[in-house]
């Protein structure tokens, strides 16, 4: 199963939890009991004359998945992190990277995707929640994710190999009695690789990866990915049944059905938008 970073607290007391919840208010300087000018508290630092604002710090903290220390310590850490961002951004601009064609294109793509995602979130949503019957039907039609769900213990091997050498490398993998023999061969040939063990649930895999893993038996390997520089191999070490009951799957299925409904709405909208638009392909071979 994917490793997930867990939020850690230095103290588990109720007072500490309340302190953490109040962090944005410390940042924003909302308290009027000290007679502080609210306008002045919007700037928490200056970097070579450039202002670091409360909004930037709050935004940074909103993306954190791991919190350590007291609220005051976390506030200081967040401010310092944003200051570092300012320093790096200034250095990048001084290196004229903001004019680099790849950087400019990446910025345009990012803005485009943010705008598209915002439009989808606002325009395409399910008007009504899925019914109990729809949820039950989804549960029954996806046993791999629920009633027959298993955890898959995998040894993942990523081998560095140029495209021209991959055929012989895969042939050696097929001839090897087991993955250990294949790894010994890699060592003998001085072929770089890295390996790690992980446990994955079916919902953590892409549909294509899930399909490949479910086709192999314990002790067998699957080629998950090949590119110009490497091959990724997964060896199935063990499986562990871990079904999920309908009662415990309802909220997850509800979210999945809502997402599917939104995707269908997007597809229908795009189909109509294409019909109502004049689209001319100018760079596709006929």
UniProtKB/TrEMBL annotation:
Alphabetized Gene3D superfamilies for the sequence: 1.10.8.1040, 3.10.50.40, Porin chaperone SurA, peptide-binding domain
PpiC domain mapped to chain residues: 130-220
Keyword annotations from UniProtKB, A to Z: Isomerase, Rotamase, Signal
Signal peptide: 1-28
Gene Ontology terms, MF aspect: peptidyl-prolyl cis-trans isomerase activity
Swiss-Prot/TrEMBL catalytic activity: [protein]-peptidylproline (omega=180) = [protein]-peptidylproline (omega=0)
NCBIfam families given in the database record: cis_trans_EpsD (TIGR02925)
PANTHER family in the record: PEPTIDYL-PROLYL CIS-TRANS ISOMERASE HP_0175-RELATED, PEPTIDYLPROLYL ISOMERASE
Family classification: Belongs to the PpiC/parvulin rotamase family.
Protein known as: peptidylprolyl isomerase
The species this protein was found in: Sulfuriferula nivalis
């Amino acid at each position: 199963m994917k490793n997930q970073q867990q939020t850690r607290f230095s103290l588990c007391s109720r007072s500490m939890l309340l302190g953490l919840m109040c962090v944005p208010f410390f940042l924003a300087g909302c308290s009027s009991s000290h007679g502080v000018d609210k306008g002045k508290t919007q700037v928490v630092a200056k970097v070579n004359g450039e202002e670091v604002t409360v909004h930037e710090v709050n935004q940074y903290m909103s993306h954190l998945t791991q919190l350590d220390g007291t609220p005051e310590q976390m506030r200081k850490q967040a401010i310092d992190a944003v200051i570092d961002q300012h320093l790096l951004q200034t250095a990048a601009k001084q290196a004229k990277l903001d004019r680099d064609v790849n950087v400019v294109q990446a910025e345009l793509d990012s803005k485009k995707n943010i705008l598209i995602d915002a439009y989808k979130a606002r325009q395409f949503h399910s008007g009504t929640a899925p019914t109990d019957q729809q949820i039950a039907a989804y549960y029954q039609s996806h046993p791999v994710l629920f009633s027959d769900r298993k955890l898959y213990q995998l040894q993942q091997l990523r081998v560095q190999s140029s495209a021209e050498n991959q055929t012989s490398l895969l042939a050696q993998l097929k001839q090897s009695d087991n993955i250990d023999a294949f790894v010994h061969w890699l060592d003998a040939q001085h072929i770089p690789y890295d390996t790690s063990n992980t446990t994955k649930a079916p919902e953590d895999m892409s549909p294509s990866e899930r399909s490949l893993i479910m086709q192999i038996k314990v002790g067998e390997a699957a080629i998950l990915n090949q590119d110009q520089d490497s091959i990724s191999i997964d060896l199935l070490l063990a499986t562990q049944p871990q079904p999920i009951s309908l009662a415990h799957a309802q909220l997850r299925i509800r979210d999945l059905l809502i997402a599917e409904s939104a995707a269908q709405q997007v597809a229908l909208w795009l189909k109509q938008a294409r019909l109502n638009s004049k689209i001319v392909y100018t760079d596709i071979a006929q």
